[in-house]
Amino acid sequence: MKKTTGFPVAYLFLFLLIKVIAFRVLIFDTKSLATIAFIEFPMWALLLALVLIGVKKRTWLAVWIYNFIVSVIFFTVTLYIRYYSTIPSYYDLQQATQSSSVGNTIAMLANPFDFLFFLDAILVAIFARKWRIHAKPQKLKYMAVAAAALCIATTVYALKQPLIDVSYFAKENGYLQSQAVQLYLRSNETAHASSTKLSLKQLEALKGNEYVELEQQKGFGLAKDRHLFVIQVESLQDFVIGKSVNGQEITPNLNKLLGESAYFSNVFQQIGAGTTSDAEWIANTGLYPQGMIPTVNSLNGKAVPSLPRTLQKYGYGSATYHADDVTFWNRDVLYPVLGYDEVYSTEEIPNIKPVGFGPADEVVFDFAAEKLPKQLDRYDRIYANIVTVTSHTPFIMPEDMQGLDLPAEYEEMYVGNYLQSVHYADEQIGVFIEELKDQGLYDDSLVVIFGDHSGMHGSLVTEEDKALLDKFIGHPYTIKDQFTVPLLFTGGNLFHGIQMDRLGGQVDIMPTILALLGIDHEDPMMGHNLFQYKKNLLGMRYYLPGGSFIQSEQLYKAPGAKFPEVLYDLKSMETRGKNSEAKKHIRDTDTLLNYGDLLLKPYLKN
Q: CA angle, 81 as apex, 80 and 84 as ends, to 5°?
């Protein structure tokens, strides 16, 4: 049937405007129509106008494709911010191949109303069958010129604003403008503009400490000449340590180890978009990750001064065990950069008893235990890095692997699944510790156990889950509970029930390990020996808005996409009024992060 009825092109822009308004309200809680009309909408409108002007044939198809792409972007941003609490950038397109790590959570994240973003694409498909697009080319050109003028003005203005936090920047300057600015900054390398180097004394002064020479620091050489085992536990948060439910300990093996460990209970995650791989990077370099970009996606292949490389100078052979595809998170690049002598992934680890997206932790620990005698024959001392995977989102465990008898209120709840998976991981750690003892290695080893990042975060933690968490912990679940991960140092006759609540970060793991082993790394690190220094200052670029800091007495959360800035007392997590001390910490944190960028820059692609 011939299409004779004209479809007013203004309706297409109206549909787009409604969709943009919905996006801004949902993501940024925007209440200003002026912000939408003059900052956010013009760039989206300009792109639509260019489609209408440039495509002379099959115009409806071009319009449909454009609407569909915009819908996919809005839908993806919505799910992303629910899980990560931050706005994705164009950098995150690099993570497309990593989507299987959270594939099982997509259905849990999506809300049926989210699919309304695709409503206009459906309407366009219907209209295309009966109407032709009625548009006057001259008016479209005038509209495009006007929109382009606004876009240029807002983008130029945005380029002059400091890009500290992507989410807040996008809220104030527009989502597409924020992407354009990030692309410009990256192409001009201004993201790493600082060239200010810090001496060890200056670094510690920023953190509030007086520098002490390494050989004079507390704990130096306490574990000298020992083997090293580092166990990075997926999604392990500190709030489960020492806790019970229904008379059952969540982490009985870790709790038992506390009596012969040095346990730091106030250590914060510092990962960026690379999540678990970022934790591997931080723990083995003592350097900050990039933040919005997974560090592993940007490595140029250059050898980095690392824990494996430094230990090699002292007769250590190194191996890393991770029951996943070695190309996942580009670990086929990461591990050679870190300098491991041996790498074990799913190519070598038996793919049996699968849980989630890899073999169960017990398979990994058994495999590692079997390799130890051969490594001991080959090297004077060994460094084994073991990364667990079973306690990964969404924490769904087979029934025969659920070791806890949870109350009915926990059944089929996200927090209940989490406790089950952490309990299982703890069980396998206990089995591995006993294996080290059976092989006569425990008394000659330093064993380090830490959590890589939070598991209980984002919109998957429902109000019902939150209530259960509050009850389980004994106080309201805060961002401090979310971001603190346990850090234990243990081994035969090393420690006797030491617990410290001084502030630490994941950048402090490697410096503390080397201090205990009595080894000087020589190259700069961002962290320090936790046994020596009482004060600390930490930055986090991803799960907290840019400009945030964690300091020994205060935690500052900078303004983000939806929420205003807030300053907490770190111990009580009660809010405080912003003071001159907090302003100084903001400046000092910026100095720390810029210095971290400077140290990182040589190992990144141009």
A: 80
Q: pLDDT tens digits, residue range 317-328?
A: 999 999 988 888
Residue 190 pLDDT more than 60? no
**Does the pLDDT value for residue 2 go beyond 60?**
no
Based on the fold, state whether residues 177 and 309 are members of the same structural domain: no
Domains in the chain, number: 2
- Return d(Cα 248, Cα 557) in angstroms, integer: 35
Instruction: Report the C-alpha gap between 434 and 491 in whole angstroms.
Output: 12
Indicate the annotated binding residues for Mn(2+). 234, 276, 452-453
Is residue 86 annotated as a catalytic residue, yes or no? no
Long-range contacts of 126-132, Cβ-Cβ distance < 8 Å, separation of 24 or more: 127/7, 127/60, 128/60, 128/61, 128/64, 130/1, 130/3, 130/5, 131/3, 131/5, 131/6, 131/7, 132/3, 132/4, 132/5, 132/6, 132/7
Cα separation, 519 vs 522, in Å, equals: 9
- List pLDDT tens digits, range 418-456: 999 999 999 999 999 999 999 999 999 999 999 999 999
- Note whether 266 and 153 are same-domain residues: no
Average pLDDT, the chain: 91
| Mean pLDDT of all residues in 227-234 | 98
Cβ count within 10 A of residue 367: 17
Q: Please give the single-letter amino acid code of residue 541.
A: R
Distance CA 105, CA 418 (A): 13
Residue 183 and residue 187: Cα distance in Å, rounded?
A: 6
Residues 569-593 have a mean pLDDT of: 94
| Identified catalytic residue from 276, 285, 320, 388 | 276
Tell whether 224 is covered by a domain: yes
Q: Domain for residue 588, yes or no?
A: no
With 0-12 CB in 10 A as exposed, 13-18 as middle and 19+ as buried, what is 252?
middle
**C-alpha pair distances (Å), 530 with each of 81, 91, 184, 270, 501:** 33, 34, 39, 16, 10
Q: Positive or negative, the Cα torsion across 31, 34, 36, 39?
A: negative
pLDDT in tens, 276-325: 999 999 999 999 998 778 899 899 999 999 999 999 999 999 999 999 88
End of a domain among 485, 516, 531?
531
Predicted local distance difference test score (pLDDT) of residue 1 = 46
Q: Can you point out the beta strands (E) in 401-539?
A: 445-451, 484-490, 498-500, 504-505, 537-538
| 93 C-beta neighbours (distance < 10 Å), count | 8
Please report the pLDDT score of residue 19 as a whole number: 93
Kindly state the tokens that stand for 294. 């997974």
Provide the token pair at 370: 């079997």
- Domain identity same for 171 and 246: no
Residue with tokens 């029934």: 399
For residue 186, give the H/E element and its range. helix 175-187
Q: For residue 133, is it within any domain?
A: yes
Q: What is the pLDDT of residues 336-363, one digit of tens each?
A: 999 999 999 999 999 999 998 789 999 9
Residue 496 is classified by DSSP as S
DSSP 329: G
Q: Where are the beta strands (DSSP E) in 511-563?
A: 537-538, 549-551, 554-557
User: The pTM is what?
Assistant: 0.85
pLDDT for 4: 53
Domain with 56 in it: 5-188
**Rounded Cα gap, residues 249 and 394, in angstroms:** 21
Write the DSSP assignment of 559-585 as a string of letters. Answer: --SSS--EEEETTT--EE---HHHHHH
Q: Is the peptide bond before 564 cis (omega within 30 degrees of 0)?
A: no
